[in-house]
Protein backbone atom coordinates (compact mmCIF):
# COMPACT_ATOMS: atom_id res chain seq x y z
CA UNK A 1 0.00 0.00 0.00
CA UNK A 2 2.80 2.44 0.88
CA UNK A 3 4.36 2.03 -2.58
CA UNK A 4 1.03 2.63 -4.32
CA UNK A 5 0.35 5.62 -2.08
CA UNK A 6 3.66 7.23 -3.07
CA UNK A 7 2.83 6.63 -6.72
CA UNK A 8 -0.61 8.19 -6.30
CA UNK A 9 0.94 11.26 -4.67
CA UNK A 10 3.06 11.77 -7.79
CA UNK A 11 0.06 11.25 -10.05
CA UNK A 12 -2.34 13.50 -8.14
CA UNK A 13 0.17 16.03 -6.83
CA UNK A 14 -0.86 15.66 -3.19
CA UNK A 15 1.35 15.42 -0.09
CA UNK A 16 -0.48 12.30 1.15
CA UNK A 17 -3.41 10.32 -0.24
CA UNK A 18 -5.42 11.52 2.77
CA UNK A 19 -5.45 14.97 1.14
CA UNK A 20 -7.62 13.79 -1.76
CA UNK A 21 -11.39 14.28 -1.85
CA UNK A 22 -13.09 10.92 -2.27
CA UNK A 23 -16.42 12.35 -3.57
CA UNK A 24 -14.53 14.26 -6.29
CA UNK A 25 -12.41 11.25 -7.25
CA UNK A 26 -14.72 10.07 -10.03
CA UNK A 27 -14.95 13.46 -11.75
CA UNK A 28 -11.45 13.27 -13.19
CA UNK A 29 -11.54 11.61 -16.59
CA UNK A 30 -9.23 10.27 -19.29
CA UNK A 31 -9.87 11.65 -22.79
CA UNK A 32 -10.45 9.26 -25.70
CA UNK A 33 -7.18 8.37 -27.39
CA UNK A 34 -5.03 9.39 -24.41
CA UNK A 35 -2.65 6.46 -24.83
CA UNK A 36 -2.21 7.11 -28.55
CA UNK A 37 -1.47 10.79 -27.94
CA UNK A 38 1.18 10.06 -25.31
CA UNK A 39 2.96 7.51 -27.50
CA UNK A 40 2.88 9.48 -30.77
CA UNK A 41 3.95 12.88 -29.43
CA UNK A 42 6.80 14.37 -31.44
CA UNK A 43 8.90 17.38 -30.49
CA UNK A 44 7.77 17.64 -26.87
CA UNK A 45 5.85 20.61 -25.52
CA UNK A 46 7.77 23.03 -27.72
CA UNK A 47 5.82 21.61 -30.67
CA UNK A 48 2.56 22.46 -28.91
CA UNK A 49 3.71 26.02 -28.23
CA UNK A 50 4.84 26.36 -31.83
CA UNK A 51 1.39 25.32 -33.02
CA UNK A 52 -0.28 27.89 -30.78
CA UNK A 53 2.04 30.68 -31.93
CA UNK A 54 1.08 30.16 -35.57
CA UNK A 55 -2.16 32.03 -34.88
CA UNK A 56 -0.47 34.91 -33.05
CA UNK A 57 1.44 37.79 -34.58
CA UNK A 58 5.08 37.81 -33.47
CA UNK A 59 4.77 41.45 -32.38
CA UNK A 60 2.04 40.47 -29.91
CA UNK A 61 4.31 38.16 -27.91
CA UNK A 62 6.18 39.97 -25.15
CA UNK A 63 8.83 37.91 -23.42
CA UNK A 64 10.33 38.87 -20.07
CA UNK A 65 7.33 41.06 -19.24
CA UNK A 66 5.73 40.18 -15.89
CA UNK A 67 2.07 41.05 -15.31
CA UNK A 68 1.83 42.73 -11.91
CA UNK A 69 -1.73 44.07 -11.90
CA UNK A 70 -5.02 43.56 -13.74
CA UNK A 71 -7.42 46.49 -13.59
CA UNK A 72 -11.09 46.44 -14.55
CA UNK A 73 -13.51 49.32 -14.96
CA UNK A 74 -10.80 51.79 -15.97
CA UNK A 75 -12.65 53.15 -18.99
CA UNK A 76 -12.87 51.48 -22.37
CA UNK A 77 -11.87 48.05 -21.10
CA UNK A 78 -9.64 46.06 -18.79
CA UNK A 79 -5.98 46.93 -18.45
CA UNK A 80 -2.91 44.84 -17.64
CA UNK A 81 0.06 46.46 -15.91
CA UNK A 82 3.38 44.82 -16.77
CA UNK A 83 6.96 45.39 -15.71
CA UNK A 84 10.05 44.50 -17.71
CA UNK A 85 13.57 45.42 -16.57
CA UNK A 86 12.12 47.93 -14.12
CA UNK A 87 9.95 49.67 -16.72
CA UNK A 88 6.16 49.85 -16.34
CA UNK A 89 3.91 49.17 -19.33
CA UNK A 90 0.12 49.37 -19.65
CA UNK A 91 -1.73 47.12 -22.08
CA UNK A 92 -5.39 47.85 -22.81
CA UNK A 93 -7.66 45.09 -24.09
CA UNK A 94 -11.26 44.09 -24.72
CA UNK A 95 -10.83 41.01 -22.54
CA UNK A 96 -8.09 39.65 -20.28
CA UNK A 97 -7.55 35.89 -20.16
CA UNK A 98 -5.69 34.92 -16.98
CA UNK A 99 -3.74 31.67 -17.38
CA UNK A 100 -1.31 31.92 -14.46
CA UNK A 101 -1.11 28.86 -12.23
CA UNK A 102 -3.28 28.19 -9.21
CA UNK A 103 -0.13 28.58 -7.12
CA UNK A 104 0.36 32.14 -8.37
CA UNK A 105 -3.31 32.95 -7.72
CA UNK A 106 -3.06 31.56 -4.19
CA UNK A 107 -0.23 33.99 -3.56
CA UNK A 108 -2.30 36.75 -5.13
CA UNK A 109 -5.30 36.35 -2.81
CA UNK A 110 -2.85 36.54 0.10
CA UNK A 111 -1.57 39.88 -1.17
CA UNK A 112 1.64 38.62 -2.77
CA UNK A 113 2.53 39.18 -6.44
CA UNK A 114 -0.23 39.70 -9.01
CA UNK A 115 -3.04 42.05 -7.91
CA UNK A 116 -6.59 42.57 -9.15
CA UNK A 117 -8.35 45.95 -9.01
CA UNK A 118 -11.09 45.68 -7.94
CA UNK A 119 -10.43 42.47 -6.00
CA UNK A 120 -11.81 39.21 -7.33
CA UNK A 121 -15.35 38.25 -6.21
CA UNK A 122 -15.54 36.42 -2.89
CA UNK A 123 -16.87 33.25 -4.55
CA UNK A 124 -13.81 33.05 -6.80
CA UNK A 125 -11.41 33.79 -3.94
CA UNK A 126 -13.03 31.03 -1.88
CA UNK A 127 -12.65 28.58 -4.77
CA UNK A 128 -8.97 29.50 -5.13
CA UNK A 129 -8.42 28.92 -1.43
CA UNK A 130 -10.29 25.60 -1.30
CA UNK A 131 -8.60 23.97 -4.29
CA UNK A 132 -5.08 22.64 -3.79
CA UNK A 133 -1.89 23.05 -5.79
CA UNK A 134 0.72 20.36 -5.30
CA UNK A 135 4.37 19.87 -6.15
CA UNK A 136 5.65 17.05 -8.36
CA UNK A 137 9.23 17.01 -9.63
CA UNK A 138 11.18 14.79 -12.01
CA UNK A 139 14.87 13.98 -11.58
CA UNK A 140 16.97 12.52 -14.39
CA UNK A 141 20.37 11.00 -13.59
CA UNK A 142 22.63 10.85 -16.66
CA UNK A 143 25.36 8.21 -17.08
CA UNK A 144 28.15 7.44 -19.52
CA UNK A 145 26.98 3.82 -19.84
CA UNK A 146 23.68 2.03 -19.08
CA UNK A 147 25.07 -0.01 -16.17
CA UNK A 148 21.61 -1.33 -15.23
CA UNK A 149 21.08 -3.14 -18.54
CA UNK A 150 21.01 -6.88 -18.03
CA UNK A 151 19.90 -6.38 -14.44
CA UNK A 152 16.66 -4.38 -14.58
CA UNK A 153 14.84 -1.58 -16.41
CA UNK A 154 12.66 -0.54 -13.48
CA UNK A 155 13.60 -0.67 -9.80
CA UNK A 156 10.74 -0.31 -7.32
CA UNK A 157 11.56 0.65 -3.75
CA UNK A 158 9.50 -0.58 -0.81
CA UNK A 159 9.82 1.57 2.30
CA UNK A 160 8.57 0.52 5.71
CA UNK A 161 5.87 2.57 7.41
CA UNK A 162 8.44 3.74 9.96
CA UNK A 163 10.80 4.96 7.24
CA UNK A 164 8.03 6.96 5.61
CA UNK A 165 7.05 8.85 8.77
CA UNK A 166 7.74 12.53 8.17
CA UNK A 167 6.14 15.71 9.37
CA UNK A 168 4.36 17.42 6.51
CA UNK A 169 5.84 20.62 5.15
CA UNK A 170 3.96 23.77 4.11
CA UNK A 171 0.53 22.81 5.41
CA UNK A 172 -2.27 24.43 3.46
CA UNK A 173 -1.74 25.81 0.00
CA UNK A 174 1.99 25.04 -0.20
CA UNK A 175 3.34 28.31 -1.55
CA UNK A 176 6.00 28.97 1.08
CA UNK A 177 9.63 28.64 0.06
CA UNK A 178 11.57 25.59 1.16
CA UNK A 179 13.57 27.73 3.59
CA UNK A 180 10.51 29.04 5.44
CA UNK A 181 9.75 28.12 9.09
CA UNK A 182 6.98 25.76 7.97
CA UNK A 183 9.60 23.68 6.20
CA UNK A 184 12.19 23.76 8.96
CA UNK A 185 10.87 20.53 10.45
CA UNK A 186 11.60 18.65 7.24
CA UNK A 187 15.11 20.04 6.72
CA UNK A 188 16.70 16.98 8.30
CA UNK A 189 14.34 14.54 6.59
CA UNK A 190 15.88 12.11 4.13
CA UNK A 191 14.00 13.33 1.07
CA UNK A 192 15.13 10.26 -0.88
CA UNK A 193 12.36 8.34 0.88
CA UNK A 194 10.04 10.01 -1.58
CA UNK A 195 11.42 7.80 -4.37
CA UNK A 196 9.16 4.90 -5.23
CA UNK A 197 11.05 3.73 -8.32
CA UNK A 198 13.92 4.31 -10.74
CA UNK A 199 13.17 3.78 -14.42
CA UNK A 200 15.41 3.69 -17.46
CA UNK A 201 14.91 6.80 -19.59
CA UNK A 202 13.81 6.19 -23.16
CA UNK A 203 15.69 8.85 -25.11
CA UNK A 204 18.95 9.24 -23.16
CA UNK A 205 21.29 7.08 -21.10
CA UNK A 206 19.86 7.77 -17.70
CA UNK A 207 17.55 6.85 -14.85
CA UNK A 208 14.56 8.93 -13.89
CA UNK A 209 12.57 9.18 -10.69
CA UNK A 210 9.74 11.34 -9.38
CA UNK A 211 9.11 13.20 -6.14
CA UNK A 212 5.99 14.79 -4.69
CA UNK A 213 4.99 16.84 -1.67
CA UNK A 214 7.53 17.41 1.13
CA UNK A 215 10.21 15.29 -0.55
CA UNK A 216 9.94 17.29 -3.78
CA UNK A 217 10.06 20.65 -2.02
CA UNK A 218 13.07 19.62 0.03
CA UNK A 219 14.85 18.14 -3.00
CA UNK A 220 14.49 21.50 -4.76
CA UNK A 221 16.25 23.29 -1.90
CA UNK A 222 19.50 21.29 -2.08
CA UNK A 223 22.36 21.48 -4.58
CA UNK A 224 22.82 19.36 -7.71
CA UNK A 225 25.80 17.69 -6.05
CA UNK A 226 23.68 16.74 -3.06
CA UNK A 227 21.00 15.26 -5.33
CA UNK A 228 23.64 13.21 -7.16
CA UNK A 229 25.31 12.02 -3.96
CA UNK A 230 22.08 11.06 -2.17
CA UNK A 231 20.50 9.23 -5.11
CA UNK A 232 23.78 7.50 -5.98
CA UNK A 233 24.05 6.23 -2.40
CA UNK A 234 20.45 5.02 -2.57
CA UNK A 235 21.05 3.13 -5.82
CA UNK A 236 24.29 1.62 -4.53
CA UNK A 237 22.48 0.37 -1.42
CA UNK A 238 19.27 -0.95 -2.96
CA UNK A 239 19.83 -1.76 -6.63
CA UNK A 240 21.50 -5.13 -6.05
CA UNK A 241 23.97 -4.21 -8.77
CA UNK A 242 27.72 -4.28 -8.01
CA UNK A 243 29.90 -1.22 -8.60
CA UNK A 244 27.22 1.35 -9.36
CA UNK A 245 28.94 4.34 -11.06
CA UNK A 246 28.19 7.89 -10.03
CA UNK A 247 26.00 9.91 -12.41
CA UNK A 248 27.84 12.32 -14.68
CA UNK A 249 25.08 14.92 -14.45
CA UNK A 250 21.62 15.54 -13.06
CA UNK A 251 18.66 17.32 -14.62
CA UNK A 252 15.66 18.16 -12.45
CA UNK A 253 12.56 20.29 -12.30
CA UNK A 254 12.04 22.76 -9.45
CA UNK A 255 8.44 23.86 -9.87
CA UNK A 256 7.82 24.85 -6.26
CA UNK A 257 10.74 27.29 -6.10
CA UNK A 258 9.74 28.84 -9.45
CA UNK A 259 7.73 31.92 -8.42
CA UNK A 260 6.07 32.01 -11.85
CA UNK A 261 4.45 28.64 -11.06
CA UNK A 262 4.76 27.92 -7.29
CA UNK A 263 4.06 24.23 -7.75
CA UNK A 264 3.12 21.73 -10.43
CA UNK A 265 -0.62 21.16 -10.86
CA UNK A 266 -3.91 21.17 -9.02
CA UNK A 267 -6.03 18.56 -7.29
CA UNK A 268 -9.34 18.55 -5.43
CA UNK A 269 -8.63 18.18 -1.69
CA UNK A 270 -10.87 17.25 1.19
CA UNK A 271 -13.36 20.09 1.69
CA UNK A 272 -13.38 21.13 -1.97
CA UNK A 273 -15.40 19.88 -4.94
CA UNK A 274 -15.71 20.08 -8.70
CA UNK A 275 -18.07 23.02 -8.20
CA UNK A 276 -15.08 25.05 -7.02
CA UNK A 277 -13.41 24.40 -10.38
CA UNK A 278 -16.53 25.60 -12.20
CA UNK A 279 -16.61 28.74 -10.06
CA UNK A 280 -12.94 29.30 -10.76
CA UNK A 281 -13.52 29.09 -14.52
CA UNK A 282 -16.50 31.48 -14.54
CA UNK A 283 -15.89 34.84 -16.28
CA UNK A 284 -15.94 38.09 -14.30
CA UNK A 285 -17.88 41.14 -15.46
CA UNK A 286 -21.04 41.69 -17.49
CA UNK A 287 -19.01 41.72 -20.70
CA UNK A 288 -16.74 38.86 -19.62
CA UNK A 289 -13.92 41.37 -19.17
CA UNK A 290 -11.91 38.88 -17.12
CA UNK A 291 -11.64 35.22 -18.08
CA UNK A 292 -9.69 32.34 -16.56
CA UNK A 293 -8.08 29.29 -18.15
CA UNK A 294 -5.53 26.66 -17.21
CA UNK A 295 -5.53 23.07 -16.03
CA UNK A 296 -7.05 24.16 -12.71
CA UNK A 297 -10.20 25.42 -14.47
CA UNK A 298 -11.21 22.18 -16.22
CA UNK A 299 -13.48 20.01 -14.08
CA UNK A 300 -12.72 16.72 -15.84
CA UNK A 301 -9.11 17.18 -16.98
CA UNK A 302 -7.48 19.25 -14.24
CA UNK A 303 -3.73 18.69 -13.76
CA UNK A 304 -3.23 17.97 -17.47
CA UNK A 305 -1.90 19.78 -20.54
CA UNK A 306 -4.97 18.90 -22.60
CA UNK A 307 -7.17 20.28 -19.82
CA UNK A 308 -5.27 23.56 -19.96
CA UNK A 309 -5.52 23.66 -23.76
CA UNK A 310 -9.26 22.98 -23.87
CA UNK A 311 -9.96 25.43 -21.06
CA UNK A 312 -8.32 28.13 -23.17
CA UNK A 313 -10.55 27.25 -26.10
CA UNK A 314 -13.60 27.45 -23.83
CA UNK A 315 -12.51 30.84 -22.49
CA UNK A 316 -12.09 32.10 -26.05
CA UNK A 317 -15.65 31.00 -26.79
CA UNK A 318 -16.97 32.66 -23.62
CA UNK A 319 -15.23 35.91 -24.49
Automatic annotation (TrEMBL):
Keyword field: Cytoplasm, FAD, Flavoprotein, Oxidoreductase
Record-stated family: Belongs to the flavin monoamine oxidase family.
Record's protein name: Amine oxidase domain-containing protein
Pfam entry (one): Amino_oxidase
Gene Ontology terms, MF aspect: polyamine oxidase activity
Annotated compartments: Cytoplasm
Organism this protein belongs to: Noctiluca scintillans (Sea sparkle)
InterPro entries given in the database record: Amino_oxidase, FAD/NAD-bd_sf, Flavin_monoamine_oxidase
GO CC, alphabetical: cytoplasm
The UniProt record lists the keyword Cytoplasm: yes
CC cofactor: FAD
Domain Amine oxidase: from-to ranges: 37-315
This protein's record includes keyword Acyltransferase: no
